[in-house]
Each structure stands twice: as C-alpha cells, then as structure tokens.
C-alpha cells in the first residue's frame, strides 16, 4: 500500500519504518525541515534500539522516504496516518492545534478513497471531529479511522512488529479490512485485531495508559507508607504479585512516572471526564500522587543534608524517563534537577543516551560527565533516577573511592540494602528503611 505518515517523531518514525519494512511504500512528512534533512542523510534524531538499521535498510530499498512537501506525502497515499504531538493544554486537556493544522493542510491533497487514521492519542470524539472538518473543507465524506499506538519507547520496534493487540476504530467494515491487511504481517502469532467504533478505540488508549499510571501511583503511595511502617515494599510486592488476580507488572515503586504519555494522558482523560460532568476522583489522585512522588527522592536528599545543599554536589545517574530511550519529556530526573538547583546544590549528571537533550535544557548550569564513574567525582551523594542496565552491577569500590561521601539515594531500588550496608554505604531507597 502507499502510505503517508504525518509527524515523524517517536511514533511516526517507528510506524512509517515498520510499515515500509513490511513491504509498503511510505512517505513520512514533517514540518521540521532539520529533522527531515537529517533523516534523509540517514541520521536518526531519536535513540530507539534497532531503529537506525531498519530506517537505513528501507530508505536504501526506496520504500521509505522523508519530506516536508505535503503534496508529495499525501497525494498518492491510500492510507494517511496522523502521528503529530497532542501535548497538554493549560487545563490538562489535549491540545489538538497541530492535529487540526495537519487536517487543513492535507485536505486538498487527499485522494477520494484515502483513509485518514489517527495514531496520535486523541480525545474521544476527535475522529468524528475530523470527519466533520474534512466534510466542510472538501464538500464530501472522507473515511476516517482511529488506530491508537501502544508501543513503549525503548522497545518500540519490537512492540510495533509484535503487538499484544491492534485496536482500530472504524465506521465501516471495508476500512477495517484495509487496516487488517496492513497489520496482517505483524499479527502472525494470532494476537487479536480488535475492531470497534472510533469512540471506543480513542477511549481504549486513554484507559490503558491511565490504568498503568494508576498501578504506579498506587505502589508508590504504598511504598511511602511501608517506609513509615517498617515494612519492605519489595517483600510486600512479592507477597501480592503471586496472586494471579494482581500480578507483578507495573507494580515497581520508584521516582514517579514520566515521559510524554502517562502524565498528559491521565490529565487529558480527567479533563474529558470533567467536561462530561463526571468527577475524575481516581485520575486526579493518580496525577497528584505522581507529582508528589517526583519530589520524594529530592526530599530525602535535602533532609539528609539538613535542608541546606549549598556547597554540595549531587551526582545523578539516569536522566531519560526510562531506560533505552533518550526521551526526557516530563522525566523525574528533571524534577530532581530543579529541586536540587533550587536548594543550592551543584549537580553532575550522566545518562547513556539522554545527555544532549538535557544539555539543550540546562546548558552550563549542570556538569555533564563522560561516564557514570566520572559523574561521581567529588560528589557528596549519588541519586539514581533511571534503571539503565549499566547501573545495576557497578564497581562499588571504585565508586566509593571517587565520591566524597558514600551516600546513595536510589529511586529505582537497584541494590540490596544489606549488601550496601556491608560495603559501608549509607543507602536510601524507596519503600524500605534506609541503612
Ligand atoms: N512517544 C510514545 O511512546 C507514544 C506512544 C503511543 C502514543 N503516542 C502518541 O503519539 C503522538 C505523537 O507522539 P510522539 O512522541 O511521536 O511525538 P513527537 O513530538 O516525538 O513527534 C511529533 C512530530 O510531529 C511533527 N509535527 C508537528 N506538527 C506538524 C505538522 N503540522 N505537520 C507535520 N509534522 C508535524 C513534529 O515536528 C514532530 O516531529 C502523541 O499523540 C502521543 O501521545 C506516543
């Protein structure tokens, strides 16, 4: 099939590349000319394992192209995927400015048989809104569908090519069939292709993210309580996780959830609820709990130093909102950096992939270390915010030698407290007694 993808960010680039890899002719459109130029040179603007090789292979074969020219991407396309950002507006609702702009720009070039598909996470009713808007612009009906994306950054290719399920929201069976054909190569293991209305499909995406976020905020609240009850959250987690009704997924306590999706999607669903007169009590609590959780690690550091961090240096390991990505949007590390700078600390940071993104935000206000050990030089303590594999089994003796004091604040519970005590570290983690 001939496919146009509008918005070549994390989702658009992965979507376009994977559809090209399964044999389709894909043109990715973006307004960011610099991004398009880099992609044309074979430079991948984001870090995502496996993506570079796939982009290279499909660009070389001629199946994957990048452009800033709307006509080139849309005119011949049988299916047009919309993958532009839908960031939060001031009231928490999704800001659809980019999406409506795209609809107006692509409308004149749409083939009469083209199917427009929202891959961006959009509020319930957006598909219906696009149908109306295209009807107004073009004076004819257009086929519009919803196809939310469930990929995880850091495992995006794997998730896209082997999805747990594909959800599509359509008004007619023939549009469902087009999308089923497109996804068939990725569903050979019999994972389900679920067809529903656009409204249910749009809702599904928000509910999935809101439930995952709820699990995280729940375990974080319980972890904070464990600390004060002399209980150990890891024991409690094991105690509940073996219950087949509960399980283990998304029940790890930590420094709060971040990224470009959970925080905004929880707030957007809450905004939709308020708009319809439903009081979003749980969603509000999930969000508020997360905002507070992002202050917990920093709070422990400030308390440890008696409330004054002037003249102190804190090393931070992990800046990306999770491992295997360079994405720092809404990352807990950013909240921690803000908290530490406000308290007067100097901060040295290290992340295997996200350094450039943080440097672009903070310039010379931080020290950027060339490696995890270098970050520790003259540090009064270490804070671990992202659980990159590199941080799981470090050389503790070398660490101790480089740090001014052997103090670790671990926002991801990577180490065994007893072992850390035996090694002479003061070790603070989440949901268990400090040692
Ligand atoms: N990132 C994820 O893990 C993820 C997962 C599932 C769903 N989503 C959803 O997918 C959508 C996109 O997310 P993302 O992380 O890929 O965003 P992103 O910010 O990485 O990418 C958006 C891209 O759209 C481009 N763009 C903006 N306006 C445009 C226009 N008028 N014409 C052409 N291009 C334009 C931007 O330049 C950018 O390259 C969001 O709705 C998000 O909620 C994201």
Spatial gap, N to C terminus = 60 Å
Rg measurement, Å: 23 Å
Question: Strand order within the widest sheet?
Answer: 3-2-1-4-5-6
Pick out the low-confidence regions. Answer: none
Summing up helix and strand content along with how strands pair, one would put the structural category as: alpha/beta
Helix residue percentage: 40-55%
Strand content: 5-15%
Number of helices: 17
The biggest beta sheet is recorded as:
6 strands, parallel
Bound molecules: nicotinamide-adenine-dinucleotide
Shape: globular
- Quick one: how many beta strands? 14
Q: How confident is the prediction overall: mean pLDDT?
A: 97
Structure description:
- The chain contains 17 helices and 14 strands.
- With 435 residues, it is α/β, with parallel strands linked by helices.
- Strands 3-2-1-4-5-6 form a 6-stranded parallel sheet, with helices on both faces. A 6-stranded parallel sheet has the order 11-10-9-12-13-14.
- The mean pLDDT is 97.
- Bound molecules: nicotinamide-adenine-dinucleotide.
- Nicotinamide-adenine-dinucleotide binds next to helix 1 and helix 5.
């Amino acid at each position: 099939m001939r496919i146009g993808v509008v918005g070549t960010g994390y989702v658009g680039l992965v979507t376009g590349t994977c559809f090209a890899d399964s044999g389709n002719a894909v043109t990715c459109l973006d307004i960011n000319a610099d991004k398009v130029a880099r992609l044309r040179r074979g430079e991948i603007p984001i870090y995502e394992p496996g993506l570079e090789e796939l982009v290279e292979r499909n660009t070389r074969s001629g199946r994957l192209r990048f452009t800033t020219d709307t006509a080139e991407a849309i005119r011949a396309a049988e299916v047009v995927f919309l993958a532009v950002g839908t960031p939060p507006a001031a009231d928490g609702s999704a800001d659809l400015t980019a999406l409506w702009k795209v609809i107006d720009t692509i409308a004149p070039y749409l083939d009469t048989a083209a199917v427009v598909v929202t891959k961006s996470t959009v509020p319930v009713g957006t598909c219906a809104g696009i149908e109306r808007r295209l009807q107004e612009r073009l004076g004819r009906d257009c086929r519009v569908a919803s196809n939310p994306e469930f990929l995880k950054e850091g495992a995006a290719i794997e998730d896209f090519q082997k999805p747990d399920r594909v959800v599509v929201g359509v008004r007619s069976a023939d549009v469902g069939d087009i999308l089923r054909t497109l996804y068939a190569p990725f569903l050979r293991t019999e994972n389900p292709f679920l067809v529903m209305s656009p409204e249910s499909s749009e809702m599904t995406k928000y509910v999935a993210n809101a439930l995952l976020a709820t699990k995280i905020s729940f375990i974080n609240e319980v972890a904070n309580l464990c600390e004060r009850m002399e209980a150990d959250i890891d024991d409690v987690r094991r105690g509940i996780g073996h219950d087949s009704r509960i399980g283990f997924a998304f029940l790890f306590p930590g420094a709060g959830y971040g990224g470009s999706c959970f925080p905004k999607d929880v707030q957007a669903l809450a905004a939709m609820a308020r708009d319809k007169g439903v009081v979003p009590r749980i969603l509000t609590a999930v969000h508020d709990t997360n905002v507070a959780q992002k202050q917990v690690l920093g709070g422990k550091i400030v308390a440890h130093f008696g409330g004054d961090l002037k003249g102190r240096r804190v090393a931070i390991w992990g800046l990306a909102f999770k491992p295997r990505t360079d994405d720092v949007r809404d990352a807990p590390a950013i909240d921690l950096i803000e908290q530490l700078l406000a308290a007067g600390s100097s901060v040295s940071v290290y992340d295997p992939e996200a350094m450039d993104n943080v440097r672009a935000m903070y310039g010379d206000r931080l020290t950027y270390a060339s490696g995890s050990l270098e970050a520790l030089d003259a540090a009064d303590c270490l804070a671990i915010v992202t659980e990159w594999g590199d941080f799981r089994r470090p050389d503790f003796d070398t660490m101790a030698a480089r740090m001014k004091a052997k103090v670790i604040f671990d926002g991801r519970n990577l180490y065994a407290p007893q072992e850390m005590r035996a090694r002479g570290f003061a070790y603070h983690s989440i949901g268990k007694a400090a040692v």
